[in-house]
């Protein structure tokens, strides 16, 4: 493109190979007909049609939507309390048509907030409903194990309930761990042992506790016990103002690859506040986020090598070497090495650092060296015989099981699920660029590593194209931020759910506005939370060493799991 050539308008050119995911939104008329016997009202959500249903028909409705309309992805289940009622909300979409979305609103009385459980239809509802019970106080009838998930069992009250007393002293009861195996699963000749893995252990990648039952060296049962790092991020975001005080919190969730977190918050707020983002700023966002994705994948691959065969001197240090180069680039761009806070509502905080040519050359030098570095990873890691023995055909996660647990990101794509929000629910500048969604059909620990390594190469393609656009963009049109009001007060009861593709998977934000400059409800849909919930499916029946490998292949960050 010459200097006098006008840049392409954002989202104008769409490559035909992506068209199969570009259908319009869901057919509301068809949905109304399908739910005519169940819907008792309608609600207005910015992102999807919303239907009000009765609390005793939840299971039947979600099964109908899954089996008859193809809504096979329960992305988010959240809850909240109003002055006159409780609400449980379910957001559904499709793995093969992400722009088809529907929301279910279930109002509940204040004196007896009981809702039918969706867990028998979608396994991912298990942890969602436990969290809603824990933090808000809604009970889910028919849930197989309704107990607290983030707070201790002896905790009094529900922190997101309107009548919660924050000053009330709490006494945490210490109890012995019971064997989670039921009597009908005991085999007379077996000799089981209850084993605590974590919460403080390098193999758990943070403060995670795995309640594990072993039969010899085989895993008979494993239950992740989370909540050790719960920092009330949702509550803090509800106390912050839209304009400046929420996005900085997001860097603390998945702190290993946190630029997508900023985009998730920005996208949701921009949706409810009707804020446009200039095309030039979208390119800067896209480029920065792909560097952030590399940060996460380099760390994931290097720590995984430590997990499976203790390789510190080679792979781990190679990963840190390359991660440091990316951090240098992002430090030049954002001013920070870890907690970047580069995004602003309506764009980014500033343009490329001066001199631009020097920064762009630094980026291109890194991209030029990257193919040889990726080859090194394959030589040292995926081509390593020990690594192959530890990862091939271990940690199996079949596609339908992954969907049932709401898995996304490399975990889902390693099971052959062709799902990526950058393509399937386009945002930023992704749909104007040439790149491919990476999938592997192995469904095992090895496939998930291959996906991450190949995604590094796809990120490099995206960054290279962004750099070309930034170089050629006319100087007088380099708008990095739109004109955003100093104070944002979206209309009361405006609701939306928006998501981005983070390094770990679908990171979604649900926001409900109340007319003030802070959200009334702010819910974080963490990909790590969902992916970790599938660990028992991957580990039970395999060796204890395979459990460690399976956990490492999920690439969880506890700051994102617990929030």
Automatic annotation (TrEMBL):
Its main location: membrane. It is found in: Cell membrane. It is a peripheral membrane protein. Residues 8-24 have a biased composition (Basic and acidic residues). Residues 313-563 form the NADH-quinone oxidoreductase subunit D domain. Keywords: Cell membrane, Membrane, Multifunctional enzyme, NAD, Transport. Pfam families: Complex1_30kDa (PF00329), Complex1_49kDa (PF00346). Residues 1-24 are annotated as: Disordered. One of its GO terms (molecular function) is NAD binding. In the C-terminal section; belongs to the complex I 49 kDa subunit family. NDH-1 is composed of 13 different subunits. Subunits NuoB, CD, E, F, and G constitute the peripheral sector of the complex. This is NADH-quinone oxidoreductase subunit C/D. It comes from Natrinema hispanicum.
